[in-house]
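Render tRNA (guanine(46)-N(7))-methyltransferase in 3D.
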Amino acid sequence: MPSPGDIEMEFGVTIPGQILPESEWARTAIKRLPPPGPLDWAAIFGRSAPTILELGCGNGRFTLLSALARPEANHIASDILPVVIRYATRRANQRGLHNVRFAVRDAQTFMSSYVGEASLAEVHLYHPQPYHNPRQAHLRLVTPRFLADVHRGLQPGGLFVIQTDNPDYWAYFEKVIPVFFDFKEQVDPWPDAPAGRSRREILARGRGLRIFRGTGLRRDDITRDTALALAETLPAPRFKSRGPWCDLDAWEEGRPS
């Protein structure tokens, strides 16, 4: 049983923050989302502040890191797997992160159905599933329509951050993301997390896989209608995906923590 002051480790890398006395814990779970519609961040967090969204957050490593470093910002994170949200929620609660909320919902639905127009300062997406089986290619998250939804949800000048260890997915990103964002590659590891911002990044780097990182600023010369029209003209992510990362994806399917 963890005790106040404990530092948690995962694959030899510290999980951000330390456990506080129980009297200082927070409540970070959104136990039941309302029917689809734009969420009121000020009502959810009890304050108006820049809001940062992480999609497919897993066990919450990046959201913990960012929320600790930026207490002035609200942080909302979602994942489709209830079990990883339980781990993320517990850790955020124990660190007293009142500026964090977690919800169980797939990234596509959360972005398209729960995020209001121009309501986010940043959107982060680390290692979306590439789905190596061609029959599952239609399940890939990063499509032109998804990018149009991210563009809609970000405030003018808002930041989109994306990362993968799959070179085929990255090649697709480089083709379509610049249509909606001023996009550039982040070659070096993130300065705030030199060992990795996500569990997947730590695992992939441990296996010698290259990490592809990119940041994009919202193109404010594109309207919502223009973004949707552009999305209709761009190709879907139908690349073939093979390589050593496939084994890691299969191994990670059993990821509980």
